[in-house]
Amino acid sequence: MMRAPDFRYHAARSVADAARALRDGGNEAMLLAGGTDLVPNLKRRQQTPKLLVGIRRLRELRRVRNGQGLEIGSARLLSEIAADRRIGRDYAALGRAAGLVATPQIRNMATLGGNLCLDTRCTYYNQSYEWRQAISFCMKAPAATGGRACTSPTGDAICWVATSSPRCWAVSSSDTAPALIALGARVTLVSSEGERDIPLEELYADDGMAYLTRRADEILTAVRLPPADAGRRSTYWKLRRRGSFDFPVLSVAAAVRFDGAGVVAEARVVLGAVASRPVLVPEASQLVGRRLTDDAVEGFAEAAAVHAKPMDNTDLALGWRKKVARRYLAGALRELGGAGRSE
Question: What is the pLDDT at residue 145?
Answer without folding.
Answer: 61
